[in-house]
Amino acid sequence: MTAAMLPLRPELRGVEPYGAPQLDAPVRLNVNENPYGPSPQLTAAIAAAVAEVSAELNRYPDREATALRTDLAAYLGHGLTADRVWAANGSNEVMVQLLQAFAGPGRTALSFAPTYSMYPEYARVTSTRWVTGRRTDSFQVNLDEAAELIAAEQPSVVFAASPNNPTGTALPPPVVERLLALAPGIVVVDEAYAEFRRAGTATALTLLDAHPRLVVTRTMSKAFGFAGGRLGYLAATAEVIDALRLVRLPYHLSTLTQVVARVALSHALELLSRVDELRRERDATVSWLRAMGLRAADSDANFVLFGRFADRELVWQGLLERGVLIRETGPPGWLRVSVGTPAEMSLFRQALTEVLQEIRR
Ligand SMILES: *Cc1c(COP(=O)(O)O)cnc(C)c1O
After folding, report:
1. pTM surpassing 0.90?
2. Which of 99, 139, 201, 213 yields a CA-CA distance of 20 to 30 A from 280?
3. Domains of the chain (ranges plus CATH)?
């Protein structure tokens, strides 16, 4: 029996499973995780909550995850209520559900590159046609080009990450409003990194009441330091939520996920307490990279895109040999480093200084 004998869908033939290398480097700055784990108090609270619900694991979970969605709505604020919030196993699942409900065969989804490398994967698994426009040299969306592309392609779903991964670029609300005016369908503003945005950068949540086709997605994987818990969510109109109910698998959020996410949310202050420090460390990283004669993109997220290198793989490899794992992603010649602890960033700076000396010799 060979793989070629399996009736694999033609578009999946020869495709590699997605994922950053999960290498065991001492300093891991490659997938934008929060470097700080939960406190002993929080891990004890999680263990206690899990022990309590364990006695009911013979029962299916609350299919509607109402208590969790109520807590998420309270966390988001902006007058949101549980009927306008949806949750799933990571915002990855949320976005696949959006395409299942609003795109699929014969329909198109669109975004502006360079952007999150998972979007085309969601399109492929939902048999949605995938189209990308280009961002400008400063990684913004050019509205004239966007207008032409959207008019030509008529996408059912537009993905606009803000802050964008891997560039760190946030979209000003007037740009989001313009995209909503141009696009015939759903506009998804992916705010996975919203909590890290700089002072004065707005969230698209403020636009929700006026725009029924706007969806704002968030995640607990980044600022919340809850990547292992797998909890993503979105805010939209109640009608969008009702549409997602049609495509979600029954009981998609386990009892354990729901209860642990609620405990984490009740400790939001503690979990988010490092965000300010991470933002300062990010800004310092941008300044340092520029002082080293490199280009570094302005960032509203917990990572920095920097370059440009004639051979970025050489730099990536040189850092890895010094124990620092970053990410080879983004436009040719650029690399992305996630913001870690001050000690980790110091090791990153030291390693990169050595690698630069080597390649500039
Ligand atoms: C990390 C990330 C997510 C979050 O994915 P989860 O499935 O919630 O862990 C979503 N969008 C972007 C752009 C990201 O970088």
Report:
1. yes
2. 139
3. 22-38+273-360 (3.90.1150.10), 40-268 (3.40.640.10)
